[in-house]
Sequence to fold (531 residues):
Amino acid sequence: MALSFLSSSVHHPYSPTPPLVTTYRFSTTCCALQQAITPAPAPAPAPPTTTLTISSPTLPSPSSSSLSCALDCQHFQSCSGCTHEFNLHRPNILNDVTDFFKILGVDDFTFDTCRLYGWRCRAKLAVRGSSTNPLIGLYEEGTHNIVDIPFCRAHHPNINAAIGLLKQGIVKLDVEPYDEDEGTGELRYVQMAVTTHSTSLPAAERYLSGKVQVSLVWNSRNENSHSSEKLNALSNFLWRNGGPRSSFHLIHSVWGNFQTSTKNIIFGNRWRHLLGERDFWEHVGGVDISLAPSSFGQANTRAFDSLLRKLHTYVPYGASITDLYAGAGVIGLSLAVSRKCRSVRCVEINKESKLSFENTVSRLPKSIDSSISWHQADTSHEPFSWLVGSEVIVVDPPRKGLDPSLVDALQNLKSYKLKAKAFESSFLKDKDEKRPWILRAREASVQIESKTAQEITQSLPNTLIYISCGWESFKEDCRSLLSSNSWRLEKAHGFNFFPGTESIEVLAVFKRGPGVGLKKKKTGKKKKKQQ
Ligand SMILES: C[S@@+](CC[C@H](N)C(=O)[O-])C[C@H]1O[C@@H](n2cnc3c(N)ncnc32)[C@H](O)[C@@H]1O
Fold:
């Protein structure tokens, strides 16, 4: 087993002084290996619950793998971010996941353990405390107390460094952190997003040299309020000390977001670009993607890339696809390039993602000959209209899973189609087009036509690819889809998107048509041999 010293130990001047703990992580040749999980190995004996503190570095023996894949984070007891301290490469939930898929006939479920530390490239953190002692972190479980997490092991190391710099700025400029009880103070939250996309660096150095886009959530209506001078001063401080002219270039850009609501909503609707590059580029799934701070972005960039590459293998070349719950359309656009899709429709409720989608499209290879569209719409309204006309449907819903109306449409595709036909024949006599899926295609929020004329078909999808970050809701949706006999489950893969937690990301591939139901339990009776 190959082990490497934690490369994030490169000490940045704004990183807080690290504790005297030497840690190890498996290199990609060990924990990040793809494992076929059949059957699940017996759980490793529980290691002692003391932090692994080693004064002089010695490599742990291979038998201590549970310790080597330990979180080893001093914030573990108080911070609510991580729930598991050991065996980060194998979350406890995996046994349930493996069993679930096995019962449904998927024996070759795989699990990609991905990067175990420094994986989080996007973090939203509360800012509380005082201007002399700011606290930046997550809530303690079940409370509204903030736990300061300067040494978080999940954060990309440059997020921790940027937090260190931000704290210095708060103290120096006397910025008042938000007080939830009083509704007073200036800085409420900060979002840190890391881009690891600098092609001016050798590939091996890019990840750890990532630059941080800092979004400061300011407790005012807009940038004209009396406290915004301080926001600008804080932004300038970050730029002067962490921007391209500083001795350690750490900051990619600084944004302001304005929020005065007393509710538990992090962002307000108003965003202002303050300093640095406006566009934030990342490279995943074979494409350059642009992500505005207001758009959804996956937290684990590397794991998402692995998932996308696996997903590509399930989409036929030249297919027409619809990407539901699409965000900025990263999945759809990466398929447009890698699978040369004939058409790609992305559907997303958040209008803020539109600009990011358009930016990403602007960098797609010119050779792409695909009809591409992005629609700001609620998938739960008339979902059938988004299902018709594509061979492959990709769904990537939030943790709560698919909207019930979408599950219903997926379960009853054929009857919807019959209704649609009746609808169509009653209207096609009219010159005016009334079919909602055709009208929607025309009214796309963003539409890029293919160079080759594309026929709008009314075929039904044959493949459904479900990407899930919510295991419990996935199980429910999966059972509903299978129980309708409209879909069968063909493949499933897991990805360690959130090491240290009880969550994993699942990629499941369904094919249309009835499949084998739940495997019957063996009764122990031998079947008579057929003569
Ligand atoms: C887990 S994210 C996936 C985003 C995108 N697939 C990606 O990987 O970047 C779920 C997305 O679904 C969107 N969403 C939530 N409810 C929706 C709905 N009813 N209709 C359309 N989109 C929705 C959210 O705004 C969010 O962007």
